[in-house]
Amino acid sequence: MNIKGTQQPMNQLILLNGPNLNLLGDREPHLYGSVTLQEIETRLQHQAGQAGFGLQCIQSNHEGVLIDAIHAARKTTRGLIINPGGLTHTSVSLRDALAAYDAPIIELHLSNVYQRESFRHTSYVSPLAKGIIAGFGPLGYELALSALVSVISAEC
After folding, report:
1. How far lies 125's CA from each of 85, 93, 115, 142, in Å?
2. pLDDT in tens, 24-83
3. 10 Å Cβ neighbour count for 26?
4. Quick check: is 55 in a domain?
């Protein structure tokens, strides 16, 4: 588990990355690019700080760790970005944890899942998300954070 970031709790956002995203930069760069997850997280930390937010980053290959992080974030964060990886299409438990999260959720995918295998076209997360960003590679993370900050600002 990779946890980074500190800030006052109510100015805190959370970024969750699911299975295999720790391999960014090495795994299938033709699909996912050559930028590492650590590089993405560093950029987002800066972007969040510029917007007045802290960003906690968690990556896990274990579904239960992600579910526990969502549960813990319910009372301490104002918004959530999630790239669930393969759990997007398989995890009812992750979906149920997200359903209990009362702040805005942005779903994110590096590749355009609709240009890929048909099993990737179904998401258990999408119905709970305020928006979905897919197909923009690592830039998608910056777009997701910008969208989340905008949604939170509009709610104030």
Report:
1. 11, 10, 18, 19
2. 999 888 877 889 999 999 999 999 999 999 999 999 999 999 999 999 999 999 999 999
3. 10
4. no
- The answer to the question of residue 4 being in a domain is no
Of 32, 101, 124, 141, which residue is the catalytic one?
A: 32
Cβ pair 45, 97 in contact under 8 A: no
Dihedral of the CA atoms 24, 5, 106, 75 (nearest 10)? 140
**Active site annotation includes 89:** no
**Is 109 one of the catalytic residues?**
yes
Q: Is residue 22 a part of any domain in this protein?
A: yes
Per annotation, catalytic residue among 30, 46, 62, 109:
109
DSSP 109-123: ESS-GGGS-GGGG--
What CATH number should be reported for the domain holding residue 123? 3.40.50.9100
The pTM is what?
0.90
Specify the number of domains making up the chain. Answer: 1
Q: Is residue 52 part of a domain?
A: no
Range of the domain at 103: 9-41+62-133+143-155
Strands (E), the chain: 12-17, 54-59, 79-83, 105-109, 131-134
